[in-house]
Structure formats: structure tokens, C-alpha cells
Design goal:
Elements lengths: L1 H10 L8 H41 L3 E5 L9 H8 L4 E16 L2 E10 L3 H4 L2 H4 E4 L4 E3 L15 E8 H7 L7 E7 L11 E12 L9 E5 H8 L7 E6 L4 H12 L3 E4 L1 H4 L1 H39 L1 H9 L4 H37 L18 H22 L7
Helix pairs in contact: 1-12, 2-10, 2-12, 2-13, 10-12, 10-13, 12-13
């Protein structure tokens, strides 16, 4: 086998008597290099966008989320909540009641997703990352500004809200403490036209940055405001939990056992299943298109190997006379194709990885949006292995098919 490898290496870009075969082989090598480079850059860019897009979800989502399988709201008894808090690994939890409502500021109004949360959100989420500007307090005494995030037990309370970035721009909110009106039809009203509206007033406390599909129209308020607005006294839309430990599936199964089979316990990805599915589909479709181009490039390698088989007939007759079997002779050309793929792919991967790392460090390529920012990229080892494996398989198949020609030895 060592002899086979040495002969294949000799045929690889022979310095003597360069021919059209060498040119085609060089084109194949360049094609594999460019294809590998393009795949590494593409996958790294998609990884960067995934990190950038879903980073907002990380700030606004709990580790696990309990929702009802049927219906928008449900009730959990205090005994159940207490039992959940005693599960090893469950560090904190907060209740959330959410529904659509009209948000009005002077003569401007829009429909938003209003999410009422209790004080447990301060222990469950990283509020410093969630609230990008403004106050982190949702309720405070009217005469005493409390900056701790703890809801006071006594005194008159002012209700505040955190607006998503899109809501700030839609309503053109100019400053903090701006008064907003939340309006929703009274679900208990007997009026056919449902002209009776529930109204709650809140004041803008700060701006939050969420995931892409939530960042346009989300309003977070104290849960008491949401319960009064939607007319739901003891019902919630979800229970959000922060868990500690690497064995999240074990904790998840224990939570499922407590809440029962009429509830779903969702992890971060499952909370935005549609978005993740759509992004992954886009990623793999892009990968498939480039993989198809690499398959076309492999036809160059097929042609060069087939022409080499014809060109080296005299050498093959001599090798056969010296005792080399046809199987080993075919292996020469398979190794030749793998060598072309190995060199070309390695050059492409190294070049692509260097470009990605330079973009990560210096951000040479900027977006064309209003606020120019560096295109996000992220280099992942599994992508490198995937590209290397794809090129190796394509080159191996092309070389094998090309070497199937009957030898005149």
C-alpha cells in the first residue's frame, strides 16, 4: 500500500512534462479550495447570525417554561408552586400572564403583547442584560423611589412598564415616566359590541431588547396590572423557572411529574420552535446549494482522473508486469483524487478560518443598515469537520468511479 501511495504522490502535479491533465487537476484542487472556503465562511456567518438573533431570547426567556397543552391560561395552586420550588435544581420562578392589548400614547396607539410578571423575574432572569436602558423597577412607592427591584408591601404603588425596542419607536416614546394607557375589551361585559374597555395606566420605566419576533411589540408590566386589565384573578399563561445544573432533563422530568401531563415543560429552543426551525432550514438549504456546487466541481476531478488513467497506460502495464494487481492499480487513482481533495480542502478551510477569525477580531465587513455594525461570525469545529468530510466523500466517489475503467494491462 505504501508503493501505491508513493506512485499516487508522484502523479500529483508531476514537474516533468506538464499536460492538460495537470491543468484540469489544478482546477479541481482550486475548486475544492474555493468551495471549502465558501462553506466555512457561510456556515460561520449563519452561526454568527444565530448567536446574534437568539441572544435576545436568552435574556428574555427562562431555562424552562410550563404552559398548558390546551387553552391560553391555567391555574396552579400554591401547594403546587411550593412543591416545584423544592425540586433540587430549581432556583427561582415567576408567573406570567400575557395577552394582546392596545397601547396608547396621546394620539398614537398600537396593538402589543402585554406580559404581566411577578417579582420572581428579578431572580429568574438577568435583568441587567434584559433592560438595556432606563429603570429596572416595575413598581415603586409614589413618594419614595426604590431602586432595588423589590415590590414594597405598603403605600401607594406606581405601576411601570418595560417597552421592547420596537414599541419605543412605534409610539415615539421620548423619555422615561411617560404615561401609557393599556386598553382591552372587557371579557365579562354582556355588550354584544364589546364597547366596554378595561383600562390600566402605566409609566415607562425602561427599554428591553428581546428576540426578533418579540422585539417589535412587547410590553412588560406588573402581574397585578395584567390580571386587572384582562379580568383574570388567579389564572396565568406560564410559569417560568430558573434551574441550576447540567442535568436539565432530569429536573425537567421532575417538574413534569409535579404539574402533570396536561402541561408542557419547554426548554429555550422549544419556546421558539418555529423560529429555530425556520433558521435551521435556511442554514441547511444554503449548505445544500454549496454542496451541489462542490458536486459539480467533482466532475472536474472525475475527468482528470479518467484522462490520467488513459495517459498512464504504459506505466500501468509495467506495474502489472511487476506483479501489481488491478485492485491496487485502481487504488493509485483513488489516492490521487483524495490527495487533490485533501490539499484543496485544507487550503480552503485554513483560508476561511483565518478570514472568519479576522472578522471576529477586527470586523472589517460592516452591515449596510443605519447603525453600521460588523457582520457577526462564529467558527465552530463541527462545521470544519463537516466540510472536510463532505469534500473527502465527494472526491472519493469521483475517484472511485473514474478508476472503474477497464485497464489494458
Amino acid at each position: 500500500m505504501r508503493l501505491v501511495w508513493l506512485i499516487a504522490r508522484k502523479y500529483f502535479f508531476s514537474r516533468k512534462n506538464p499536460s492538460a491533465i495537470n491543468v484540469i487537476t489544478a482546477i479541481s484542487l482550486t475548486g475544492y479550495a474555493v468551495g471549502a472556503l465558501a462553506l466555512i465562511v457561510l456556515l460561520s456567518a449563519l452561526n454568527g447570525f444565530e448567536t446574534s438573533i437568539f441572544g435576545g431570547y436568552f435574556n428574555g426567556d427562562a431555562d424552562l417554561k410550563v404552559v398548558a397543552k390546551q387553552g391560553k391560561v391555567f391555574e396552579l395552586t400554591q401547594a403546587k408552586l411550593s412543591e416545584l420550588s423544592k425540586i433540587p435544581g430549581v432556583e427561582a420562578q415567576y408567573q406570567c400572564l400575557e395577552d394582546k392589548a392596545i397601547v396608547k400614547l396621546n394620539d398614537k396607539q398600537t396593538v402589543a403583547l402585554v406580559k404581566g410578571v411577578d417579582s420572581g423575574i428579578y431572580k429568574t432572569l438577568i435583568i441587567d442584560s434584559l433592560v438595556v436602558t432606563g429603570s429596572k423597577v416595575l413598581q415603586r412607592k409614589s413618594k419614595n423611589d426604590i431602586s432595588t427591584g423589590q415590590i414594597p408591601e405598603e403605600g401607594n404603588l406606581l405601576n411601570f412598564t418595560w417597552l421592547s425596542e420596537g414599541m419605543v419607536y412605534k409610539l415615539n416614546v421620548g423619555s422615561e415616566n411617560t404615561k401609557l394607557e393599556l386598553l382591552v375589551p372587557d371579557r365579562n361585559s354582556s355588550s354584544i359590541s364589546q364597547s366596554v374597555l378595561n383600562q390600566e395606566d402605566v409609566y415607562v420605566a425602561g427599554m428591553i431588547k428581546l428576540g426578533e419576533d418579540l422585539n417589535e411589540s412587547t410590553v412588560i408590566v406588573p402581574i397585578d396590572v395584567a390580571k386587572s386589565l384582562f379580568g383574570r384573578e388567579n389564572e396565568i399563561s406560564s410559569l417560568n423557572l430558573k434551574v441550576k445544573g447540567s442535568d436539565i432533563e432530569t429536573i425537567r422530568s421532575k417538574i413534569q411529574a409535579v404539574v402533570g401531563q396536561s402541561f408542557d415543560v419547554l426548554d429555550r429552543r422549544e419556546q421558539h420552535k418555529t423560529m429555530y426551525k425556520m433558521f435551521n432550514t435556511e442554514k441547511w438549504v444554503s449548505f445544500a446549494l454549496l454542496a451541489f456546487i462542490l458536486m459539480l466541481i467533482s466532475f472536474n476531478l472525475f475527468g482528470s482522473i479518467r484522462m490520467m488513467v488513459i495517459d498512464k497506460q504504459q506505466d500501468l502495464k509495467m506495474l502489472n508486469s511487476l506483479g501489481m494487481h488491478a485492485v491496487n492499480i485502481r487504488s493509485i487513482f483513488i489516492f490521487e483524487g483524495q490527495l487533490v481533495s485533501l490539499v484543496g480542502t485544507s487550503l480552503g478551510i485554513v483560508t476561511g478560518a483565518v478570514l472568519v477569525l479576522l472578522q471576529q477580531e477586527y470586523g472589517f465587513v460592516k452591515t449596510q443598515s443605519t447603525f453600521a455594525m460588523a457582520y457577526p461570525v462564529k467558527l465552530v469545529l463541527t462545521d470544519i469537520l463537516l466540510v472536510f468530510g463532505l469534500n473527502t466523500v465527494l472526491a472519493g466517489l469521483s475517484s472511485w468511479f473514474a478508476s472503474l475503467r477497464k485497464f489494458n494491462v
